[in-house]
């Protein structure tokens, strides 16, 4: 299509006006929020030192100070409920022979592990000998204090050889699983009947004989948690809502010293929601539809906050016109993924059009259904929902290295503008 120079000029002006308006200092604001959310005060936004609770206070204050409206069923901008969670509030110590292992770097406690305090456990390797000569070589050890060492790379080969039965018969005090790949932590709502650690294979001393270990563990059946939510009323259809969501929780701490800051996951998505609140709070940016901003808790423990919301919505889910969930939003040099993009192809085409028109992100990709973030249970309840995450090499996932200075923030501005434009087009 040919366009006249006059029209071209107008389009160019439009782009320029649009970008100056949206560029209003949002990246410094976002980086500051990510810094704050990753600071020691919030303890990794988990269940040690009330990290997640403190974060909910900080965020609900932000909602309030931004002038968001609160729902009658969540007057303080919070939806309170309880969930089970396993935690490690105190000592986390592991020594093999004379080598003290570094928590978070050399080893992680399995999130479902039981606590333990034991010295000089004898190491038994769950190797070929263990499985093939169990009766002659291993059985006599029953009743001894044992740390059973399992190599995660080898264990597949021993499946079907009464693995679980033999381990249970031996009744080890501790299981050490050796892993050759990256150690990725998580949060658990259940607990094992055993103490269990994951150790980097190269940190395990060859011919090790004994293990001393102390892991303080506390399991809560009903730990109090909260989703944070508030809204801006639409000018024309106040009863119909666009949801913009992200999870604010992360993995918290493993013991007193080791903190998981969760900069990309998901201080970044949380900060983007805060950024959008700032934008839509300006009267000139008000939409025809109401916008509900939700910051979920318990995502890392298994999408608990968003699941709870869909079970106990504070107004009927049918009133949600569209939901956009944000997770991992600070490292987008390769573009953005749209989960459910292939389920709602019309909206996906619209996203692509906006992206091309305003030159926002390198690429927008789509995939189908995935239970990998807080959009999922909404989708399962027939709410139209997308989950956006940015694409780009970023190896710091669920580890102690996902710190605020790591993300490139490439693509942040583009994604932000794309989301705003998309929401305006709904
Ligand atoms: Zn995560």
Tally of alpha and pi helices: 12
Order of helices and strands: HHHEEEEEHHEHHEEEEEEEHEHEEHEHEH
Query: Total number of β-strand segments?
Result: 18
Computed structural class: alpha/beta
Helical residue percent band: 25-40%
The end-to-end span amounts to 26 Å
Low-confidence stretches: 1-20
Structural overview:
It is a single chain. With 426 residues, the chain is α/β, with parallel strands linked by helices. It has two domains: 273 residues, Zn peptidases (Aminopeptidase, 3-Layer(aba) Sandwich); 124 residues, Glucose Oxidase, domain 1 (3-Layer(bba) Sandwich). α2 packs across α8 and α10 crosses α12. It starts with a helix and ends with a helix. It binds zinc ion (ZN). Zinc ion binds next to loops.
Q: Which key features would you list for this structure?
A:
single chain, alpha/beta, Aminopeptidase, 8-stranded mixed sheet, 12 helices, elongated, binds zinc ion
Put the structure in a nutshell.
This protein is of the alpha/beta class. It has 12 helices and 18 strands. Strands 1-10-14-11-15-18-16-17 form an 8-stranded mixed β-sheet, sandwiched between helices.
Question: Could you give the topology of this structure?
Answer:
Elements: H1 5-22, H2 26-37, H3 51-65, E1 78-87, E2 92-96, E3 99-100, E4 107-109, E5 116-125, H4 128-132, H5 134-138, E6 146-151, H6 155-158, H7 163-170, E7 174-179, E8 195-200, E9 210-215, E10 218-232, E11 237-247, E12 252-254, E13 258-260, H8 263-280, E14 289-296, H9 304-311, E15 320-326, E16 335-339, H10 345-358, E17 364-367, H11 376-380, E18 385-391, H12 412-425
Parallel strand pairs: 5-6, 6-7, 7-8, 11-14, 11-15, 15-18, 16-17
Antiparallel strand pairs: 1-10, 2-3, 2-9, 4-8, 5-9, 10-14, 12-13, 16-18
Bound molecules: zinc ion.
